Amino acid sequence: GATMIISSKQLTHFSIHALDDKVGGIRDILFDDETFTVRYLVADTNTWLPLSRKVVISPISVKQLDEDSESVHINMTVDTLKNSPSIDEHKPVSREYEENLFKYFGYGYYWIGPGAWGEFAHPNELVELQRAEESETETPKKSTNHLRAVGEVGGYEVATTTDNVGHISNFVIDTESWKIIMLVVDTNNWLPGGKHLALLPSDIESIDWAAHSVVVNLSHDELVDRPEVESEKISEEGYVPMLCEQLNKNGN
Question: Whose C-alpha in 18, 167, 207, 249 is 20 to 30 A from the C-alpha of 156?
C-alpha cells in the first residue's frame, strides 16, 4: 500500500504483537542523530518482565504496522524477545550491547566501530573503555554511536540563530525507510495559543545535550514562517509529502 507516515506520538501508543502473543506497548523510540533514522523501538515490558529490564526491537524485525488497530507486529516469539539482551534505562548503552543484540537476532551491523550513547553518568569510564578498545585494534573508530531517545529530545527547546522559540513536540517517521522526515515545533511556551511548525532534519545544526536544546540554522522569523503541521493529518496519505515539497520550494 501507500507509504505509511506516522508520528512518534501515535507510535508510542501502539501495542506490540509477537508471533504468538501480545507483549505490551512501545514506550520510546531511539534514533540516530546524524542520519535521523529510527534504530530501535523500546518495548514497555512492565507487564511481562521484571521492572528493571527493558528490551528493544529493531525495525528490521517489524513485519507490519497496523494503524487501525494501533499495533506493530514483530517477526519473533515472546520468548525470543524475552530472552533478548535487555537495557537498563538509567545507564548508557554500549556498542558492545548493540553487538550482542545484533548477534542474538542474527542481524548484520549497521555501524562502523564500537562506541556508546546517551548522557554518561561517569564520562571517565567511557574514556577508559575507548582507550582499551583503541589499543586492541587499528581500525578508525567513531567515539559515539549517536543514539538518542525521542522521549528525551521531545521537550527540548529550539534555539534559532536569534533566540529560543518553542520546543520539539513530535517526530514524523516514514515507516518504510524508518527515517525521521520532519520534526514539529510547538511554540506554545513562547507564544500563548502557539503554533505547531514544521522543521526538517536538515535544519538542525546540532543537539545540545547540556542545554537541552535543538540548535537550528534558521532565524526566529524563518522558523515562525514555517508551515503549520496539523497533527491529526500526519498519517493521511500525501499530507506530509506535500508539506515537505512546500518547504523545499521555499529554498530550503
Answer: 249
